[in-house]
Amino acid sequence: MQASLRGRVRRNAIAYVFVAPTLVTMLLVHFIPGAQGMYMSFLDLKQVNLLLYLRAPFIGLAHYQQILGVFFGSDDANVAALGQALNNTLWYTFWVDAGTLGLGLALALLLHRRFRGVGLARTLVLLPWVMPTFVVGIAWNLIWLQDGGLANHLLVDWLGVLHFRPAWLTGPASFWALVIPSIWRTLPFTSVMLLAGLQVIPTDLYEAARVDGATGLDRFRYITLPFLMPVLSVLVLFGTVFNLIGGQGYNISASMFAAGSGAAVNGGRFADLIVPAIVRQSFERQLFGYGAAASVVVMLILLVLVGVWYRGFRSAATTAD
């Protein structure tokens, strides 16, 4: 058995050589900093003892006990801010995922049709995805301006839907001012992925269903959706993980709110997300141990959500296959 193992190792030696740099890079970039961050979460690491990292007091689970106040209530201002940011992030993830999947599917179905200029339309759809994120943030900042912004000009002056000019960059409206650009930015990727899924569905199935008298809704329900389920499940996983760790929201808010987080200026607590909140705790208030503990908690939440996806969407995707 050992000889067989040695033989397999020799046969795959070239493959191991090519894979080794990636594994070493992953170790240096992800696993070692991750382990260091987890260790920091058990330390009372602040500005005063940052240079004395190895001598920082070990306080065990104190930071985690403090963070539990996010779920069970706490009078601590830092914990309250973190809880608000986590709540915003969960809702942000839900609405961005729902918006990109719904609109992306509709756009993919439209682009899957044959019409004059379909190639140009498919190219133009990609523009939001290839634009630099800071340009997206600045552009939407101009759109959301209370006086002179395109959004209020359209809703108030042209369509007359509103009789007042909302302050999109301050107060509760700032949450939607962050969600909508994030959907706009992510929509091209989602629609292209779904369009690729639509193009591999055999057309014979649609023809047979049409001959059997199936309606358009029946064909969509029993043919299109099952074939798209593998793509949809991956998009749900990608969107959930990506948006929970900030996603487009973190980068867009940096230029749109001109504060890097939407919390210190303009957007206030309504547009604050969990990753910017952790960054502020760690680098503005120098609570490095507390920020590291909060990052570990976010990682655990992600693991739980990925586990839920694995039991639900992955089984659906396997069934569809």
Task: Describe the model.
The chain contains 16 helices and no strands. The protein has 321 residues and is an all-alpha fold. Helix 5 (77-111) runs antiparallel to helix 14 (274-284), helix 10 (173-199) crosses helix 13 (247-256) and helix 12 (216-244) packs antiparallel against helix 15. It starts with a helix and ends with a helix. Mean pLDDT is 85; it is low at 259-267.
List strands and helices in order, with pairings:
Layout: H1 2-11, H2 13-40, H3 62-67, H4 69-72, H5 77-111, H6 118-125, H7 127-130, H8 133-144, H9 150-158, H10 173-199, H11 203-211, H12 216-244, H13 247-256, H14 274-284, H15 288-311, H16 313-320
Helix pairs in contact: 2-15, 5-10, 5-12, 5-14, 8-13, 10-12, 10-13, 12-15, 12-16, 14-15
Which key features would you list for this structure?
single chain; 321 residues; mainly alpha; MetI-like fold; 16 helices; globular
What proportion strand? Answer: under 5%
Low-pLDDT regions: 259-267
| Annotated CATH topology | MetI-like fold
Q: Main β-sheet: number of strands, strand sense, barrel status?
A: none
Question: What is the top-level CATH class?
Answer: Mainly Alpha
Q: Briefly, what is this?
A:
By secondary structure, this protein is mostly helical.
